[in-house]
Design brief:
binds pyridoxal-5'-phosphate; alpha/beta; eight-stranded parallel sheet; eight-stranded mixed sheet
Length: 356
């Protein structure tokens, strides 16, 4: 029998969350962001739940090819564009839309005539200071793109650095609009946070990622219920051994946790080699048989330990939810000092996926 750990992907949650985005941004088309193997869910497994999106956005050519294999004929957006001239042949073959965010990428595109025209997202750096043309250079970049016979539609794009701060968002929108005021083209700005909290950013195409997976963009778990989102991944496993320890005994490597009283401990088949964070502290929430309890001791490669002293029904074979439908990933992430994004992306390939 394989180890009992698995990641369940909830297809109805994915399609539900997509419909929430549609309600929030009724006039925009939706890029379902499935980069990083669909935030750890696997592109192939989320596809049936998200195929009512208007397009898929990602980074990897291999993931784009997989979507085509799965039968997706609509738009696919490469969020970081191309890296080498040979990428353009794949872009053309798979009919991908590419972001152009730098002088280097623009030159590559100029130097590589294509047989079939492609669509381009021209990215502006309006304050994030990561990717994109600075506002003074934006219009000239657009003119150079427009001059290429192998570029058809050009969409104007930018990305927010603090989408839950209305003032910062307004500042970036103003920079974006001002530097593109002489260009008539579709616009795309909003990630999940902007979709939820800044309706003035919705424009022509929105780009939700994390909310499709039922987690909060700002890591505050009550937002998930407030916005009627449903978690799309449940990471679960089982207790594979139990121990009874006396006061002053320790658990696991380095003896990080010392019992203050007699305790019953459940050993769970889930460790950092599955993607569970090794830095999770004592007290990180875990569900055993649906009952809330806590991590105790250092997470090891293949196992972690939980306190089952007060869960009398907990035995070898009992179900453990690490995060998911009943234990929000944002609450686990908060205990670990990170965000739900990082936890879901960290699922490793040895954790099998069951989609239903
Ligand atoms: C990842 C990404 C998104 C989605 O971000 P979420 O916060 O998960 O909604 C949107 N746009 C760009 C450019 C991205 O890289």
């Amino acid at each position: 029998m394989p180890r009992p750990i698995q990641a369940q992907i909830h297809l109805t949650a994915l399609s539900h969350n997509l419909s929430v985005v549609k309600q929030r941004a009724p006039n925009a088309k939706i890029w379902a962001v499935v980069k990083a193997n669909a935030y750890g869910h696997s592109v192939a497994h989320v596809y049936p739940g998200l195929k009512k999106a208007d397009g898929f956005a990602l980074l990897d050519l291999a993931e784009a090819a997989l979507l085509r294999q799965l039968g997706w004929q609509g738009p696919i957006l490469l969020l970081e564009g191309i890296f080498t001239p040979s990428d353009l042949a794949v872009v053309e073959h798979l009919k991908l839309t590419i972001v152009v965010h730098s002088e280097e990428q623009l030159r590559l595109l100029e130097q590589t005539p294509l047989t079939y025209p492609i669509a381009v997202y021209l990215k502006m750096n309006s304050g994030m200071n990561r990717l994109g043309f600075k506002p003074p250079h934006y219009f000239a970049a657009w003119q150079r793109l427009r001059a290429l016979a192998w570029v058809n539609e050009i969409t104007l794009m930018t990305h927010f650095s603090e989408a839950n701060n209305a003032d910062k968002v307004v500042r970036q929108i103003n920079i974006f609009k001002e530097a593109s005021e002489n260009i008539s083209a579709p616009h795309s700005m909003a990630n999940s946070a902007a979709i939820l909290w800044q309706p003035q950013t919705h424009a022509d195409w929105v780009r939700p990622g994390i909310i499709l997976y039922g987690a909060s963009p700002n890591g505050i778990s009550h937002e998930v219920n407030e916005h009627n989102l449903q978690p799309s991944m449940t990471l679960s496993s089982e207790i594979i051994a139990t121990q009874v320890i006396q006061a002053k005994e320790t658990i696991g490597y380095n003896g990080r946790f010392t019992a203050s009283h007699k305790m019953r401990i459940g050993v769970v088949a889930c460790g950092y080699a599955d993607g569970y964070p090794r830095h999770a502290p004592d007290g990180t929430p875990v569900l055993v048989n649906g009952i809330l309890t806590q991590l105790v001791g250092c997470v090891s490669m293949d196992m972690l330990c939980v306190d089952i002293t007060s869960i009398s029904g907990a035995i070898v074979g009992s179900t453990v939810e690490l995060w998911g439908a009943q234990l929000l990933i944002d609450d686990v992430a908060k205990a670990c000092g990170t965000i739900g994004y990082e936890l879901m992306c960290a699922r490793t390939p040895r954790v099998p996926i069951i989609a239903r």
